[in-house]
Specification:
Length: 389
């Protein structure tokens, strides 16, 4: 009896009340829930910051394409005396359609600029790394090219007004500053520096000068236009020879962004348009640049295997197809206006329709697959450079 009485209290002491167990389980569950909510909130914050890290200046390809399309539609809708031209057909399209296209280009460009400004604020080390990247630094010209193209196609401002003049200077000055920075590196850096960093996207730097020269010529600033054109054409000749010879480093372009090869015919096409505005006539020099563009275009489209790997999955690099085609169509429009031949008008029609179709297809893909615009394997994302910065 005594042993049973001694064991009983010991047995009761080992048992815990049910309300204590319930309290422990409830506390543990609430703690786990709070930790889970904290993890979810942290993951959302990191995800937003990751988007800023993966976003880069290469996304201004979209604004380049849309602003180029706005300029193409404005050029085609201008009055003409050629009965065989495409322009009378374009003028049948309601004016509201062009205003909507221009507004879409403006909205896209403003959104991209704001997003990049936020990236500069919260991910400045990534911006510095991009500036040191042999591909990324070239797209720093893209927003200013887009603004100049949008300004030239605006239906709300007329050239030679004070606001137009101010905006033209505002968008051209960053191009000159970047020229001094990048061209200065090419000129003063070590031996074979250009041959190591040159790639097809380097042609955006000369395209920016040609766009600025064209804008200045349309404003009546002929000396400024000639200045920017001479800087652009001099570096284009050096760059074209460097890329043509394929030095060591020229083949370092990832397969994912091979659509930028289309920039090969965008540069002479824009040079053709710039010189047409400077000389006020589509002379022999313009025709030579236009024929060079056609040759380079034919050389690329006859080699679809070059772009096969880049076409396996949709990415923002696909937008690199649109802008060069649009610029080539613009050059074909000026050429057909000069020669007034049926073959020239047919060429203008084919290139313009192709440019519009490619842009529409890219807009549809972008709307249907927005998640593919920020891939984790984007070659622009260079964490090694970020650590160094």
């Amino acid at each position: 009896m005594e042993e049973r009485e001694l064991q009983k209290p010991h047995h009761v002491e080992l048992q815990k009340p049910h309300h204590v167990e319930l309290q422990i389980i409830t506390t543990s569950t609430s703690t786990t829930t709070s930790l889970t909510n904290l993890d979810v909130a942290t993951e959302k914050t990191l995800s937003k910051l990751s988007i800023l890290t993966r976003f880069h200046a290469g996304y201004f390809r979209i604004s380049l394409s849309l602003c180029g399309q706005a300029l193409l539609w404005k050029t085609l809708s201008e009055p003409t005396t050629d009965a065989h031209a495409l322009r009378p057909i374009i003028r049948m399209v309601p004016a509201a359609a062009f205003v909507m296209l221009w507004s879409l280009a403006l909205f896209t460009l403003v959104a991209l600029c704001l997003l990049y400004a936020v990236r500069c604020l919260f991910r400045f080390r990534s911006v510095r790394a991009e500036f040191a990247h042999h591909v990324g630094m070239n797209y720093l010209f893209a927003p200013w090219i887009s603004w100049l193209l949008l300004l030239q196609s605006t239906p709300f401002l007329r050239p030679n007004t004070k606001s137009y003049l101010l905006l033209c200077w505002l968008f051209s000055l960053p191009i000159l500053v970047l020229d001094v920075k990048i061209y200065g590196q090419w000129f003063t850096k070590g031996k074979k520096f250009l041959s190591m960093v040159a790639n097809p996207t380097s042609q955006i730097t000369v395209i920016a000068n040609f766009v600025g020269a064209r804008a200045a010529a349309q404003m009546g600033w002929r000396e400024t236009a000639v200045c920017m054109f001479s800087v652009g054409i001099a570096h284009y000749l050096v760059l074209f020879v460097t890329l043509y010879q394929r030095f060591l480093g020229s083949d370092s372009l990832p397969a994912m962004i091979r659509p930028v090869f289309f920039l090969f015919f965008a540069a002479p096409s824009m040079a053709c348009l710039a010189w047409d505005s400077i000389s006020s006539s589509f002379d022999t020099s313009c025709k030579m640049l236009f024929f060079l563009s056609l040759f380079l275009f034919a050389s690329l489209v006859s080699r679809p295997a070059l772009f096969r790997r880049s076409m396996r999955q949709f990415s923002v690099a696909w937008w690199a197809y649109s802008f060069p085609l649009t610029v080539l169509a613009l050059a074909a429009t000026k050429y057909s206006q000069e020669v007034k031949a049926e073959m020239a008008n047919l060429l203008m029609l084919l290139l313009s329709v192709l440019s519009v179709l490619v842009t529409l297809i890219l807009m549809v893909f972008t709307a249907l697959k927005p998640n593919d615009l920020l891939p984790h394997d984007d070659p622009f994302w260079c964490p090694n450079l970020i650590r160094k910065a």
